Model the fold of this input.
Amino acid sequence: MLGGILAAAMVGALPVFLVRVLNDAAGTDFPEFYEAGRHVLEHQTRQPNSILYYYLPSLDVAWMLVAWMPLKVAAVAYYAFGCVCWVGILCSVRRYLLPATPRDDQTVVLLCAGLLTAVSAVDNLLAGAFHLLMVWLMVAGLGRIIHGRRGGPALLGMAIWLKLLPGIAIVYLLLKRRWTAAAGSVAMAVTLDVGLSVGGYGATQARALHAQWWKAQAVGQLTAILERPTASSAQSSRNQSSPAVARRLLNHRPIFVSDRGHIYDQMIDRGASLRKTVAICYGLAGLYALVGLAMSQIRTRYAAVVYLLVVIVSAAIVWRKGYLRMEGLRGSSKCEG
Done:
């Protein structure tokens, strides 16, 4: 019954997706991705100001596989592909994350998980984004590596190529001394990116586009967040972490309005250079990540003590340095967003 409901939800949402695509309505990025692929087909270069500019230049080339079809046909094909990815994620979770669970219980758990995520998947993820494919490749790749099956590094490398976020799995593999799997995953991501870029743009233009991507996105977005006095709408939506909400409550400010009260903003406002701020933030992020990964190797009761100490020490430093208070900082006289 639950499986029938999931299938009905996927089929029933297809007409809505087509209406969105044909009218370029909100809720789907597919028309922009499609046009970016068409631009590469017709001009052998990236479409200026495309939404795909946030990703590696080779992603535009990959979208040529979709863009050669008429828009209506491409939309149906891509939606069906998204549904396959969604089902693939559920199957990979059952195979690699729930191997010790009785099979009947596995089915119930996964179908319930599918229903709980149905609204988000049908309304957004199937409607143009390729996050489902990334998650499927990442779960399946890591699962195959851990269980000693072939093809794991290739799948994980494809996930890293789609979005760099799954690259954190490389750190995990290195800590587990899976040197071959880590190297194979990185090699797959690099091979896909270089091969598609050179094949689609040529070597000279591919190199220039990667340099442009690095300057505008990898470095430029971080610089904009740190230096811009007001946040864009996209940055505001990512400006709602738990510490930020707690800080706004303590300072009697609207909790869902972005501001310049984050630690990196305050470091800039207090005179730290951008290079120093970036180095400290990356260093702290790496330190916390290493602590979290190290805790996976010890008993839970000991890990809980370490986590508690980390939280207490971090909170004390933040409090003593005054990073929970916003008086005297640039932009503290009013809420900005």
